[in-house]
Amino acid sequence: MATLPSSSFLNLNFGFRTLLPRRGFSQGRVRGLNNLCFLCKKKREIWGSNRRLDRIKCFSINGNDEGDEKRPAPAQEEPEQRPGGDDLKSERNTPASVSPRPPGIPSEGQTFSSFQIDSFKLMELLGPEKVDPSDVKLIKDKLFGYATFWLTREEPFGDLGEGILFLGNLRGKKEEVFAKLQRLLTEVTGNKYNLFMVEEPNSEGPDPRGGPRVSFGLLRKEVSEPGPTTLWQYVIALLLFVLTIGSCVELGIASQLTSLPPEMVKYFTDPNATQPPDMQLLFPFVETALPLAYGVLGVQLFHEVGHFLAAFPKKVKLSIPYFIPNITLGSFGAITQFKSILPDRRTMVDISMAGPLAGAVLSFSMFFVGLLLSSNPVAAGDLVQVPSMLFQGSLLLGLISRATLGYTAMHAATVSIHPLVIAGWCGLTTSAFNMLPVGCLDGGRAIQGAFGKNALFGFGLTTYSLLGFGVLGGPLSLPWGLYVLICQRTPEKPCLNDVSEVGGWRRTAVTIAVFLVVLTLLPLWDELAEELGVGLVTSF
């Protein structure tokens, strides 16, 4: 049964009464301490070693010790006597830092209703299960010491303080000490806990051996590890995949805009059109739209295969992909979650980069082959007419298209291209959006693994600003920004080893990838488009 101390939610007030020593203090009154309510017992465990608990009396509900149960009034006691000299001496020798009432506990007389007590119990039951105090004592005795990690203090760890963060001084190389502590933890407690090596929060300086100062966090496995995929999640994933197939087919039909019936084109392009046309007119165009739909969907599937191929050697489990349909690009990609804790930041970078890299390689191959076929007279029968403004949506892809097709073909109202160009363009744009360094997108995970969570905060703030002002992504910047805010804004959870560096070449690869993402999503401004001959620019 999961428990969580109610102090994680609010500052509780308990009614305690401090009783001075009285003559004739009966043994029955001492036995009454065993009848404390659960809240007072919690406080008794916390105070226990350095308090005189025989002076504490609990008034949990209506001044009674046991909820609604009423006790007979105690017999009249003799008048209080002033303590003797020994008692006064002991009171004077009490350290000043020990107060008779802990912080947050009001003066006597304040009580709680049964509804409040039940609410506190419910909050404890619904919270995550905490680390067993007996295990903490055993871990401190068996794991930490002069040869591994000299423990100085402890702090809460985890989203709700359900774990323990051990702070102190490292006594060796980080990787060697961490491996030794993990082995000792398994020997002492079995397969019960996960140990994390993280940067020490609010550290005063770097570690003398190099790198940041480290601390070790302890969480239960059932709290720290992701849960299994449920039946409803499989149903949702299947439904989203079917919708994504439909959006890819719709993209294929839209690519044949010049061949569609005029009433169909007017309905989808004229904002004043209210009378819907006969949708059966679209059926003859579905078959010709399938090749483009297969290409766009194939890029997304290849993207996910790249993630799984990179995760398999690392023994990292991934969830099923939740594809996000989009009528403009066919798909916004997919949400794929980690179903196991990542061992280190290198693994996070490798798995995060593998998907966009696989999708980008396939997309660019389709894009470039499509450009070559577009200038080949043999494939003239397969070409489709698209507005030339399409090529102004990307600085990088527009320049490649201009260099391949030439000035004459690009400097026109419409351009004849092969459907592979559209499939590759959509795939590259989707891969670039997913590599944006924000949240738990592939780019955000890669930045977090390569440079740390603090760097991700700066990159994320910049990305949100560029999307908000429409600098990146053009007309797709707003829907993509909303999608990230709703579904992908939270950074990835830390790895088991969240401190060790990933190496220079991984950081370089991530930096180059982010630079290419900016070039792909940065639109061509009108002056440059007119000068290069990419489309017809009528106004500046």
From TrEMBL:
UniProt KW keywords: Chloroplast, Hydrolase, Membrane, Metalloprotease, Plastid, Protease, Transit peptide, Transmembrane, Transmembrane helix
This protein's record includes keyword Hydrolase: yes
Domain of life where this protein originates: Eukaryota
Biased composition (Basic and acidic residues): 79-92
Region (Disordered): 63-110
Membrane topology: Multi-pass membrane protein
Compartment list: Plastid, Chloroplast membrane
GO CC terms: chloroplast membrane
Gene Ontology MF terms: metalloendopeptidase activity
Stretches that traverse the bilayer: 231-254, 281-302, 322-342, 354-374, 386-405, 417-436, 456-486, 507-525
A biological-process GO annotation: thylakoid membrane organization
Residue ranges annotated for the Peptidase M50 domain, each copy included: 293-452
The keyword Protease appears for this protein: yes
Function: Probable membrane-associated metalloprotease that may be involved in chloroplast development.
Family indicated by similarity: Belongs to the peptidase M50B family.
Protein name: Probable zinc metalloprotease EGY1, chloroplastic
Organism listed in the record: Dioscorea cayennensis subsp. rotundata
